[in-house]
Write a structure and sequence with these properties.
Its EC number is 3.1.1.29. GO terms for molecular function: peptidyl-tRNA hydrolase activity. This is Aminoacyl-tRNA hydrolase. Keywords: Hydrolase. It holds the Pfam family RF-1. This protein has a domain at 9-97: Double Stranded RNA Binding Domain (2-Layer Sandwich), CATH 3.30.160. It contains four helices and three strands. The protein has a three-stranded antiparallel β-sheet, covered by helices on one side. By secondary structure, it is α+β, with helices and mostly antiparallel strands.
């Protein structure tokens, strides 16, 4: 596993917008929320295998064009929201560098097959007993 490199500043697009939620007059006056955009599909700094792994994720933050959009508005200050957005981006990209472990196909043991079939037999006798009852 290779370590994720730092994403260059010129590949990030930041927009500061007004946050929603509580905060009184501060919310109406100051643009503290951060919308961070990172073009996964067109990024030259990502290796091809990482790019395909990230784009294959079914994440609602990825647009049709392959752009990751992170909205950060947890904190009251612009700087802290900016840090938060970049941390979340780093965590997202780090996920792409993790190679998934290959699944090893296994067979059920003889004991587990016998237990399953025994439980099915018991269940069927219970149900059979319900259906053919004559209540005269």
């Amino acid at each position: 596993m290779s370590t994720p490199p730092a994403i260059p500043e010129d590949e990030l697009v930041e927009r500061f917008v007004r946050a929603s939620g509580p905060g009184g007059q501060n919310v109406n006056k100051v643009s503290t929320a951060v919308e961070l955009r990172f073009d996964i599909a067109g990024s030259p700094s990502l290796p091809e295998h990482v790019r395909t792994r990230l784009l294959a994720r079914r994440d609602r933050r990825i647009t049709e064009a392959g752009v990751l959009v992170i909205n950060a508005q947890r904190f009251r200050t612009q700087d802290r929201n900016r840090e938060d957005a970049r941390e979340r981006l780093a965590a997202f990209v780090a996920f792409g560098y993790e190679v998934p472990k290959a699944r090893v196909a296994t067979k059920p043991t003889r004991g587990s097959k016998e237990r399953r079939l025994g439980a099915k037999r018991e269940r069927s006798t219970i149900k059979r007993g319900r259906a053919t009852r004559d209540w005269d």
